Amino acid sequence: MSRTRSIVVIVGMLLIAVAGSLLHAGTPDLKTYPASDFKDQAYLQKMHQKVGAAWKRPAETPKPPAKSVVIVTILRDGSLLESRLHMKSGVDQWDASAMEAVKSAAPFDPLPKGYPRTSVEVHFHFEYN
Length: 129
Fold this sequence. Notes:
Elements: H1 3-24, E1 28-34, H2 41-54, E2 66-75, E3 80-87, H3 92-105, E4 119-128
């Protein structure tokens, strides 16, 4: 085999390896799930965007599929009563970035006037698929 052909074969194998690793690389995603009686989609979308903008993804990511779930209780005035890490991803940096995103995004807007409760529970899923 000629030297040029050997180089082409090696480069081709490297490209296949890189492409394969990219296909298996995960994609970060944020999903927001409010209590079932919370129906204000505009409020939910604004809250989701605020948390998403505050989310600083760490360099170290979990092995897909994985997720961190942060559960929060938002009071009528938009402040956080409680936030807790309900599910861990397996990577401490990923979990910490999820908690920090929610805390940094708070306070939220006051709850909609039509919402009858004094607080709402929301689950934020920081996924890596």
